[in-house]
Structure formats: structure tokens, C-alpha cells
Write a structure and sequence with these properties.
This protein is of the alpha+beta class and about 775 residues long. The protein has seven domains: about 5-130, Rossmann fold (3-Layer(aba) Sandwich); about 140-145 and about 155-185 and about 435-470 and about 510-570, Topoisomerase I, domain 2; about 190-240 and about 370-390 and about 400-430, Topoisomerase I, domain 3, CATH 2.70.20; about 250-360, Orthogonal Bundle (Topoisomerase I, domain 4), CATH 1.10.290; about 575-640, no CATH class; about 640-700, no CATH class; about 705-750, no CATH class. Helices cover about 35% and strands about 25% of the residues. It has a six-stranded antiparallel barrel with strand order 9-10-13-12-11-14. Strands 2-1-7-8 form a four-stranded parallel sheet, with helices on both faces. It has a four-stranded antiparallel sheet with strand order 19-20-21-22. Helix 3 crosses helix 5 (about 130-155), helix 5 packs parallel to helix 17 and helix 6 crosses helix 13 (about 455-465). About 35% of the residues are buried. Residues about 320-325 and about 755-763 have low confidence and may be disordered.
Length: about 775
């Protein structure tokens, strides 16, 4: 038995590390956390300094027994979980779950899985950092308090199954605020004017130095330009540079992977995790842009050997954020000589992105020559501007396949008159702010200091799975835009269709997100405050530095938070649902509301507080709560509608349910998609009902008094007693089998033992 036991979080990481350690070391995986707060219950003793109650995860009990046995047999146990607070907490929980002795327990950290880094870590062990553990505990306890005390309020006041969280609720609020900005945005129209001049067989395009606010001014401009001369008055040439970006941190990697590769935030982190565990890149949860001296030297050697000294420019980056302490370096390759690696194409593309970005930071800036030509119009005070850019030296751009094309202007002279080909004045409209994508939401959260690198991916995933946010494409709308064209001294007008507002893979809040956010902001303003959420992150940093006690920090928060819960219970459902009065029913004179109910958007006729129970109806298809009118709402109360009767005299009702329109006869429901429940005829309803009865009748070959049935299943006939299903032998006729034969067939099949599906182990 090896005398050293090394415990890491994932089997992939264990496999890579085992390659670098000799036979004296055994590397095993804990598959993430082995101990945590139980899934059910608060499990935090509020009366005794918020002491958490931890338990060994049910699906990890066998694993813990195996690790404990291995740890008892080893002389030393090395805890090699990740170097951030979460990793430190995993190491601490392992010491508790395995009853490890301090004198035989060593904590090691490394930010890359290479032979040199692993051996350096072995040579420099330390104890578990309890300050980092406390910071993680504070985050865990605070989030549990908010989630478990706030979520039940949402269940009672808004809708069952909702959840709230310190970071997730703020992320949803950002999306809600942006959506409302877009809704309130008033587009302003103007005309963009582009002139095309001919010069020695080439076209020279120039744009007017100002926008014209309406078609009248645009037409006046073209009338003046009709009889004007166009003269080059200045040619300005300036050198320009384009510098590489800083090394990747977690958030910038997520943003660039989204922009260049189309990866989601979660996908990027999963791919980076696998690259890290295989030893190809450094740790991918970091907010430090620093590169070590060793790495700078390796980058210098690669650039000098492959591109030449004119391409090399040493840069050392310093992280400005004082709280960036969770990792030593930026995300980078472990070996610049490895140009391509990864288990699949997705990993390869992400690795290439990291490789290019890191190496480019040590390369010279690209050099350009920027030219601006100013063109005078004799009858107007405005100028036409023509701009060009020429890449003189590619510098760091040499690494990238796509480089900006040169915009080369024809040879011009000051005082030279230009021949006008045409001028086009095109109507344009200002655009509202864009909705957030996953990457731009990460950037905004980072700007506001909300969350940390490890929280972005799970936060964005949670708000989507909870139904607060949908990732979708916005189709936009087509509008007709005017264009005025001056050509050959004539002005013509036309309308050109343009599709505006098209967006892809954007985060769009649902209606329930708006209601939940407004409720939380009214009663729990601090929890949804951007400043508060950022201040909490600062408090966690102070705890990690040993400058604050986590119990006191939680106590200060809870002292202000808990009283708000009682206040929130006073909110009425009508207030929370944001019922919007559409008007009055002209027949009954009752008010009609559009509101959000416990199970989604709905219409209500009548007051909730009145003695007479109000009537409820669903919204029409493809109409939102914000847009529905009284005229659209009133017909919905006609349901359920009596369509007619069956041949047996039973009433046929048409209605709309959770799964769409249907007709109902007694207790039998029949879907009528795509027919309209308001228009379906008695004949159509009877035919659908008869077809349903026939289908039900054809389902059973035999039904016996004992409850045994011979059923026509999708994979052939079978016998069932409601508990067991046994396929009918091919030789048997399902229509002629007797009850006794059916019992024998059932008894011939052994009863299957119940088993519990084991929970999938987290990696």
C-alpha cells in the first residue's frame, strides 16, 4: 500500500496527477464535496452564531468509507483540491469527514497540472487555510438563509416553486431593467448621407460629417448639392496602433468564447475544466491577469524563435482589483509549444483561443496609417469625410487568421476637384440598448462587483432553469425606410424595407420574472441592491483575509433581513400579481383584469373581495399581459362553451386547458388542436369524440372482472394486472385468451425487485 494518499476533486485530475508521482503515491478523487448542508431544511442554528449542520452527502457515504480506509493505511494524506475558496472548503470537509490527524495531513495547491507544478506543491505543503474556509462558509450560510427564508414567501405570494437568491435575483433584475429600458425607448429618426465620387476609375466613398434630422432637410441638402462642386481641402495622415488585450480571466474568457466561438458560459467552463484537468491550461477560475516570470520567458523564446525580435514586446500585467486573490495567474497554456490539443474540436478551439490570447500579450502592437480626407461642398457648410486605414506592420495580429482588411483611398491632392457619381440619404433610427447575452451579463455582473468567477456560470444557468429568463432569438420587425438619391442632377425617392430589432441568443425575462423582481424590490430592496450585493463580496474578501469574523458578518446581515419577512407577508395577492384593469364588461358591468395567477397569466372578471366569485379565463394565444385589450379579453370569458350534445344526449363543452383547446363529454377529454374552441361545430366535436372512444375501445382486447386486462400496446399485446405487464406469447390470440390463461402468463414472469437508482456522482 502506498504510504502517501493524494485526494483531488475529479477522476480526470487524479489520472493526470498520478502520471507525475511515483509508486509511493496513490491519487484518489472525492468527486467534489463529500460534505455539505442537507438539501432539506434550513440546518443553520440561528440562535448559536449561525452554526451550520453538515452531513455527508448520501451518495458519497460509500466513497467516504473507502477514502477513510485508504487514509488510515497511508502515512501522509495530501489534500490537493483547487486553490480557490471552494477548493479550500472541500479540503476542510475532507479533514472532518475522514477524521484526519493534523500531523499527517498536508494541504497542497497548484494552478497548473504539470510535473514541475505538482512536485513544487509537494515540496511546499501547508495547513488548510481556515480564513478561506470561513469565507466559503459565510457565502454558503448567507445564500442558504436568503434562499430558505425568502423562497417560501414567493411561494405564498407569487407562485409555488419559485426561488430567490442573493446573486441570481440581482442578475434577473438586470435583465428586467434592460427589458424595460427597451420598452420605454423612443427611437429617433435621421438621415445618413453617403456620397460616391469617381476618381481614375475607382470609387471613393465619403460620409457627411453630421446626420440630417428629417426628410425635408435631407431633400434641401440634395438640392444644394445638385449644383455644388466638391473639393479636397485637407488630407490628414496619422500613425495608429492596435494593441493586444490583457490575458484571460474567467469573465473575459467567457465573453470571448461567446463572441468568437458561440459557446455558452456553462459550456466554456466545462470545456476549460477538462483542459485544466488534462494539464493543458492553468486554473480557469481566476480574476488575476498576472503572468509569472517563467511564463514570460517561455513566451519570449517562442516569439523570437518563430516570428523574430521585431514581433516581441514584453508586458507584465498587474491586477488592479485588490480582491483578486483567489489565484496566482491568468488563464494560460501550460506549454506554448503545444499548438493544438483537446479531446474534441470544442476543446481544441477553446485551447487555441487561450493560446493566441496569452502569446499575443507579449507581442508588438500592430501599426497602421490612418488617413482622413475632408471634402468641401461649395453650397453647404458641411463636409464629406473619407477615411482609410492601411496595416503597416501586423505585430500581434500575425497570430490571428482574421485581420481587418485595409481600407485604401485612391491618390488624392489638396485642391483637387472630385466628380460626383451619386449621393444617397438613407433614413435611419436610433437603436435601443441591446438585451443581455450570457457573455454581456457576465461583464455587467463583473462591472458591478457582483459574484465571483466561480459563480457566473451557475447563476446564469439557474435563472434560466427556474423560468425567470429565456434564451431566445428576437425576430424583429420590418419597416419601410425612405431613401433620397441624387444622381445625374436628379433626385429620386424610394422606400426600402429593413428588418430591425433582430437579436440572437439573448436573455429575455419572462413575465413572472418581472412580478417577482418588483415584489422583492419593494419588500427586500437591500437584497436586490447592486451596491449591497457587491458589499457582501467585499465582506467575504475581508473574512478570507482574516480581517472579519464570518459569524459577525452574517449576524449583521440577518439583523436587517429577518424583519423584512414579516412585512412582506402583509402584501396582498392582488398587489403582487400586478392586476391591470382593462375596463368593464358592458353586459355585467364587472371590472376585467389582466393579472398573473398562481399558475401563470390569466384574465379575471369581477373583484376577488366581492361576495360573488370572480370568473377566470386564459389569455388569447400570442397576446401578453402587457398588451391585451378589453376587446381581446371579453370573448375569453365565453368558455367553457356548450357546443351541443352527443347521440346519447350528453353535453359537449369546449374549453382551453393547460395543454391547449379541448372538448369534454362527462369525464372524457378530447384535444381539438388546431381547431378553435370558440368556433368548433357540434359535428366536428362529435367526430373527434367518436374517434377518441374508438381509440379507447381498440386499446383493450379483453377486460376481466378480476381487473386483469389484455392490452394492445405500442410494442404488441400484453397482459397486465395494473402492477405487472407481461408480453403475450406470439402463439396466443389476444382476443380469445381466457382469464385463467392470463393469470398463468402473469405468474410465469418473476416479480422484479425494487431498486433505488443511485445518484450520479458529481465531478
Amino acid at each position: 500500500m502506498p504510504k502517501n494518499l493524494v485526494i483531488v476533486e475529479s477522476p480526470a485530475k487524479a489520472k493526470t496527477i498520478q502520471k507525475y508521482l511515483g509508486k509511493d503515491y496513490s491519487v484518489k478523487s472525492s468527486f467534489g464535496h463529500v460534505r455539505d448542508l442537507p438539501k432539506k431544511g434550513l440546518c443553520i442554528d440561528i440562535e448559536h452564531d449561525f452554526k451550520p449542520t453538515y452531513e455527508i452527502n448520501p451518495d458519497k457515504k460509500k466513497l467516504v468509507r473507502e477514502l477513510k480506509k485508504a487514509s488510515k493505511a497511508a502515512h501522509d494524506v495530501w489534500l490537493a483540491s483547487d486553490e480557490d475558496r471552494e477548493g479550500e472548503a472541500i479540503a476542510w470537509h475532507l479533514t472532518k469527514a475522514l477524521d484526519l490527524k493534523p500531523q499527517n495531513t498536508k494541504r497542497i495547491v497548484f494552478h497548473e497540472i504539470t510535473e514541475q507544478a505538482i512536485k513544487h506543491a509537494i515540496d511546499n505543503p501547508r495547513a488548510v487555510d481556515l480564513h478561506l474556509v470561513d469565507a466559503q462558509q459565510a457565502r454558503r450560510v448567507l445564500d442558504r438563509l436568503v434562499g430558505y427564508e425568502l423562497s417560501p414567501v414567493l411561494w405564498r405570494k407569487v407562485r409555488p416553486g419559485l426561488s430567490a437568491g442573493r446573486v441570481q435575483s440581482v442578475a434577473v433584475r438586470l435583465c428586467i431593467d434592460r427589458e424595460r429600458e427597451i420598452k420605454d425607448f423612443k427611437p429617433e429618426g435621421s438621415y445618413r448621407v453617403i456620397a460616391t465620387f469617381s476618381h481614375s476609375g475607382d470609387d471613393l466613398k465619403a460620409e457627411l460629417d453630421k446626420r440630417l434630422i428629417d426628410s425635408k432637410l435631407a431633400k434641401t441638402f440634395l438640392e444644394d448639392a445638385k449644383d455644388s462642386d466638391f473639393t479636397v481641402i485637407t488630407i490628414d495622415q496619422k500613425p495608429g496602433t492596435r494593441s493586444p488585450g490583457t490575458p484571460f480571466i474567467t469573465s473575459t474568457l467567457q465573453q470571448e468564447a461567446s463572441r468568437q466561438l458561440g459557446y455558452s458560459v456553462r459550456q466554456t467552463m466545462n470545456l476549460a475544466q477538462r483542459l485544466y484537468e488534462a494539464g493543458h491550461i492553468t486554473y480557469m477560475r481566476t480574476d488575476s491577469i498576472t503572468l509569472s516570470g517563467e511564463v514570460l520567458g517561455a513566451a519570449q523564446n517562442y516569439i523570437l524563435n518563430n516570428f523574430g525580435k521585431e514581433y516581441y514586446h514584453r508586458r507584465q500585467f498587474q491586477t488592479k482589483d485588490a480582491t483578486a486573490q483567489e489565484a496566482h495567474e491568468a488563464i494560460r497554456p501550460t506549454n506554448f509549444n503545444v499548438l493544438k490539443t483537446g479531446e474534441d474540436q470544442q476543446q481544441e478551439r477553446l485551447y487555441r483561443l487561450i493560446w493566441q490570447r496569452t502569446l499575443s500579450t507579449q507581442m508588438a502592437a500592430a501599426k497602421t496609417t490612418n488617413t482622413q480626407v475632408n471634402i468641401k461642398i461649395t453650397k453647404r457648410p458641411e463636409l464629406f469625410l473619407a477615411r482609410g486605414e492601411v496595416l503597416v506592420f501586423d505585430g500581434f495580429l500575425k497570430l490571428f487568421d482574421k485581420r481587418k482588411d485595409d481600407t485604401i483611398l485612391p491618390p488624392l491632392k489638396v485642391g483637387e476637384k472630385l466628380n460626383l457619381s451619386e449621393i444617397v440619404a438613407s433614413e435611419t433610427y436610433s437603436r435601443p440598448p441591446a438585451r443581455y447575452s450570457e457573455a454581456t451579463l457576465v461583464r455587467k455582473l463583473e462591472e458591478l462587483g457582483i459574484g465571483r468567477p466561480s459563480t457566473y456560470a451557475p447563476t446564469i444557468s439557474t435563472i434560466q432553469t427556474r423560468g425567470y429568463i429565456e434564451k431566445k432569438d428576437i425576430t424583429g420587425e420590418v419597416r419601410q425606410l425612405k431613401t433620397l438619391t441624387l444622381k445625374n442632377k436628379k433626385i429620386t425617392e424610394a422606400e426600402v424595407p429593413e428588418k430591425s430589432g433582430v437579436e440572437r441568443n439573448k436573455l429575455v425575462p419572462t413575465h413572472i420574472a418581472g412580478i417577482t423582481t418588483d415584489f422583492l424590490f419593494k419588500y427586500f430592496a437591500d437584497v436586490l441592491s447592486y451596491d449591497f450585493t457587491a458589499r457582501v463580496e467585499d465582506d467575504f474578501d475581508k473574512i478570507a483575509d482574516g480581517k472579519e469574523e464570518w459569524e459577525k458578518m452574517i449576524a449583521n446581515f440577518y439583523k436587517g433581513f429577518h424583519p423584512l419577512l414579516s412585512k412582506a407577508e402583509t402584501a396582498s395577492r392582488k398587489e403582487v400579481s400586478q392586476a391591470r384593469l382593462l375596463g368593464k364588461d358592458p353586459v355585467t358591468k364587472k371590472p376585467v383584469f389582466a393579472r398573473f395567477g398562481r399558475y401563470g397569466p390569466m384574465l379575471q372578471k369581477g373583484e376577488t373581495e366581492s361576495e360573488e366569485k370572480p370568473a377566470f379565463a386564459p389569455l388569447p394565444t400570442d397576446v401578453s399581459l402587457d398588451d391585451i385589450t378589453l376587446e381581446q379579453a371579453l370573448p375569453m370569458f365565453a368558455l367553457p362553451r356548450i357546443v351541443g350534445k352527443t347521440d346519447d344526449g350528453e353535453v359537449i363543452e369546449a374549453n382551453i386547458g393547460r395543454f391547449g383547446p379541448y372538448v369534454k363529454v362527462g369525464k372524457t377529454f378530447v384535444s381539438i388542436k388546431p381547431l378553435d374552441p370558440y368556433k368548433i361545430s357540434e359535428k366536428e366535436a362529435r367526430e373527434l369524440y367518436a374517434a377518441k372512444l374508438k381509440k379507447e375501445a381498440d386499446k383493450y382486447f379483453q377486460e376481466f372482472k378480476s381487473g386483469i386486462k389484455v392490452v394492445n400496446g405500442p410494442y404488441g399485446p400484453y397482459v397486465t394486472n395494473g402492477k405487472r405487464n407481461v408480453k403475450l406469447p406470439e402463439k396466443e390470440n389476444p382476443s380469445k385468451i381466457t382469464e385463467e390463461q392470463a393469470k398463468i402468463i402473469l405468474d410465469s414472469q418473476p416479480v422484479k425487485k425494487n431498486f433505488r437508482r443511485r445518484a450520479k456522482k458529481s465531478k
